[in-house]
């Protein structure tokens, strides 16, 4: 085992007003069979006593470090945690989620020759636990296949449930504006993937995603304006690497999917003259789409009638 000053893996937990959940998240790290880790708790300007709770937790184990920073959002807190990390690998855990038993060891066991290792997650809602199986076998992917799988949503777009080699974060890799508050993990995966060599997928369940009514994913409602900004930033991230031209069809598909998300969120009440809507429909004519996506684009001008139709199927 390496000395304490250089743990093999650094686990970063960004924390904002998470008193109700934090101890469970920390316990899931403490209970890992693999023990050569450090835990970095980043208190992102919490106002509910989470900062004091972090200090109390850190006093119980010298592998736990706490940093208190002004509120800057989850991406900034994660980036700060990485800047303070000393491990060779980085693992992110959200303060209201958990690592499953044996998760760290399972991911490290498949890390040879790879810069990212991705497992499966469980969705936990009260007493109900559902396995979300996106990886059915152990395999290694090229970066192009990884990015394509991300955009097609065949590979989990979350930043959790995986480990990253810390060298991927060098030279300011992560650059995501704070106003991107939904699906920013997707962009972060792209930015890190651009610098990777190989990516490993494993079928092991490694992460517990806990569903609470107050989570952002339950309260956020998207719009055409948000989806346009998001897609533009995603494409910008892809063009920072060498793979964007090879992923043109996937990028257009992402825009069509984003258009439908906004359409359904707004219950069909969209402006057909909106620039993002019009340009997406125009680009979609130049790529191969499934019948389902073609049908959506065809019926889009019917607005509320199309909304009710797609809401039923």
| Shape call | globular
CATH topology of the largest domain: Spore Coat Polysaccharide Biosynthesis Protein SpsA, Chain A
By CATH reckoning, the class of the largest domain would read Alpha Beta
How many beta-strand runs?
10
C-alpha end-to-end distance: 54 Å
Nearest-angstrom radius of gyration? 20 Å
Q: Sheet with the most strands? A: 10 strands, mixed
- The count of helical stretches stands at 12
The H-and-E topology, N to C, reads as: EHEHEHEEHEEEHEHEHHHHHH
Number of domains: 2
Based on helices, strands and strand pairing, what is the structural class? alpha/beta
Strand content: 15-25%
Question: What do these coordinates show?
Answer:
- Strands 1, 2, 3, 4, 5, 6, 7, 8, 9 and 10 form a ten-stranded mixed sheet that branches.
- It is globular, with a radius of gyration of 20 Å.
- The protein has two domains: 210 residues, Alpha-Beta Complex (Spore Coat Polysaccharide Biosynthesis Protein SpsA, Chain A), CATH 3.90.550; 92 residues, no CATH class.
- It has 313 residues and is of the alpha/beta class.
